[in-house]
Hints:
Domain Thioredoxin (chain B): 64-207
Helix content of chain A: 10-25%
Oligomer: heterodimer
Number of strands of chain A: 13
Keywords (chain B): Cytochrome c-type biogenesis, Disulfide bond, Isomerase, Membrane, Redox-active center, Transmembrane, Transmembrane helix
Number of helices of chain B: 6
GO cellular component, one term (chain B): cell envelope
Shape of chain A: elongated
Radius of gyration of chain A: 26 Å
Structural class of chain B: alpha/beta
Radius of gyration of chain B: 23 Å
Largest sheet of chain B: 7 strands, mixed
Strand order of the largest sheet of chain B: 3-2-6-5-4-7-8
Shape of chain B: elongated
CATH topology of the domain at 62-207 in chain B: Glutaredoxin
Structural class of chain A: mainly beta
Largest interface: A-B, 39 and 51 residues
Distance between the termini of chain B: 77 Å
Main location (chain B): other
InterPro entries (chain B): AhpC/TSA (IPR000866), Thioredoxin-like_sf (IPR036249), Thioredoxin_CS (IPR017937), Thioredoxin_domain (IPR013766), Thioredoxin_ResA/DsbE_sf (IPR050553)
Strand order of the largest sheet of chain A: 2-4-10-7
Helix content of chain B: 40-55%
CATH class of the domain at 62-207 in chain B: Alpha Beta
Amino acid sequence: MGLMRSFAGLLIGLPVVLTAQQVGNLDAPVVKPKSYVVYGAEPQSVAAGKRSVLELHFRVLDGYHVNSHTPKSELLIPTRIELQPAAGVKTEAVEYPVGTSYSFSFDPTEKLDVYTGAFTVKLPVVAEAGTHTVDATLRYQACDHAACYPPKSLPVQVIFTAK
Amino acid sequence: MKRSGLVFGVMVVGIALLLWAGWHNLRERRLAMQQAQENHVVLVPEKAGSAAQDSQSPEAEAMQMRGKVAPAFTLATLDGKKVSLSDYKGRPVLVNFWATWCGPCKVEMPWFEEFRKQYAAQGFEILGLADDVDAGKDAIAKVAQKTGVTYPILLTDGKIQKAYGGPDGMDYLPMSFYVDKNGVIVEETAGLGSKDEIEAHIKKIVASEATAAGGQ
C-alpha cells in the first residue's frame, strides 16, 4: 500500500512539474529603430559623356521587409527613389530590382512582393566630366512579422566622378 | 504473491504511459510556445531622439499611455459625420489606429467586429482611426468594407496621432488603446496580438465600473 501511495503521489505531482516548465515570458519589450533601411554610400567612377549606370546599395535591417517597387496591391506603398536635378548630370528612369515573395505567418494566403536584406537600385546617367553629387530620397514602407511602420524617407547622396 | 506482481507490473506500465504522455504533452506545448513567441511581439513606443537601445529611458516611459485619461478628439467619419470620444462617456471603448497599407491591422479588424457584437450589450464600442496620410476616403472605405467592419471609421487629422503616439505620431501600426468607462486607458498594445489577448483586454474594460467623476 505504501508503494502504491508513493506512485499516486508521483502521478499527482507530475502535472505540476510539467506545467511549471511551460511558463515563458512573452512580454519582453522590443525597441524598434527609427529607420529600417540603410544606404551604403560609395564613390563611383563613370565615363564622361557616355551613358553609365550608377549603383545604389541599400540594406533592409534584419527582421524587416519593405514593399518592392511593384507591390502586389494598389494599397501598398512601393519603394521608390525621388531624384533631385543635378548640374551636368542627366538621369534616366531608375531600374529597380525584382522583389521576393513574402507572406505574413498569420495570413499565408496573401502574397506580398518585398525587398529584404541587400538590394541594389540602378541609376542610368550621362554626366559631364567632373565630380557630381545627385541628391535623392528613398521612399519606403517597412513591416516586420507583426507590425507595420509609417512610410519613411531616407536621404541619399550619390557621389561619383565622370572621367 | 503472483497477484502483487501483476498489480506492480500494471502500475509500472501505467506510470510509463503517463510519463510518455506527459513528455509528449510538454514537447507539444514547448513547440506551441515557441511558435507563439515567434508570432508575438510587444513593442515599446519610443520618442524621437530617445536612445534606440534603451527601453527604460525616461522618454520611452513617458510615452506609455496606460493609466492616463484618453486624449479627447472629434473626428469625421467617412460620410462626414462628427464623432467625439466624449460621445461614449461611461462606455468602454477600443480606440484602434490602423492604415490601408498595414497587413497586420487588417487581420484583427474582423476580430474587432466580432467582439463588438459579442459585447454590445455592455455598451462596448470600437473607433477605428485611419492613420493614412495619402490614402483617400475611397481606399479607406474599400478596406473597411473588405474587412467587414461596421464600427465607425474616423479620418485622422495629424493631431490625434501625436496625442496618442508622441511628437512624431504613431511609430507603428496597429496600435490599440483600451479605454474603460471612466475614460482611462487601461491597456495599450502595439502590433498584432492574439485574438484571446484582444478579448482579455476588452473584458477588462467592459468589467470596469463607471464613476461619477470619470468619463471620456
